[in-house]
Amino acid sequence: MFDMIICSQSTERNFFESFALQYLKENPDYNNPAYNTKLGVYSEGCGLENVLLSWGHDDYMYLVLKASGTTLPPAALFIIRYHSLYLMHSDGKYQYLMNDEDRENLKWSQIFSKYDLYSKSKVHVDVEKVKPYYESLIKKYFPKKVIRW
């Protein structure tokens, strides 16, 4: 599944009703009654941290940051972990799986998404000029000075 999609997806039933349905009809889970409800194996309000998503660069970076002892605020970690869950922050999907913290962090994720895709500049950045600023951010949010890849 990770080879055929570019954005994060939930494993709940609505995923199968999305664009990937044509590719996944032969998956035994498609006909499993436990997955043929709105919630599937999840309970309402369980929180996104309890929802199995397709794994990709988002979750990898989130795990690296957590293992490295980052001091980034929870909203920043939420954005990093779920920024490719486009159906959530662009289309309002998965609201029924979110807890209160997810709903609060979603606001920040929606703001960030405006700058995530299609916002790249053709202007070349003078790396040496901006380097001190980014080094100060690294110092602030990575106090252990070791990143655990």
UniProtKB/TrEMBL annotation:
| Keyword RNA-binding found | no
Q: In which pathway does it act?
A: Polyol metabolism; myo-inositol degradation into D-glucuronate; D-glucuronate from myo-inositol: step 1/1
Instruction: Copy out the cofactor comment.
Output: Binds 2 iron ions per subunit.
What is the designated name of this protein?
A: Inositol oxygenase
Can the keyword Oxidoreductase be found in this entry's annotation?
yes
Name the catalysed reactions: myo-inositol + O2 = D-glucuronate + H2O + H(+)
Q: Which residues bind Fe cation?
A: H57, H83, D116
* Any single biological process term in GO: inositol catabolic process
Where in or outside the cell?
Cytoplasm
Q: What keywords were assigned to this record?
A: Ascorbate biosynthesis, Cytoplasm, Iron, Metal-binding, Oxidoreductase
EC numbers, comma separated: 1.13.99.1
Q: Name one Pfam family in it.
A: MIOX
Instruction: Provide the species name.
Output: Quercus suber (Cork oak)
List the cofactors.
Fe cation
GO CC annotations?
cytoplasm
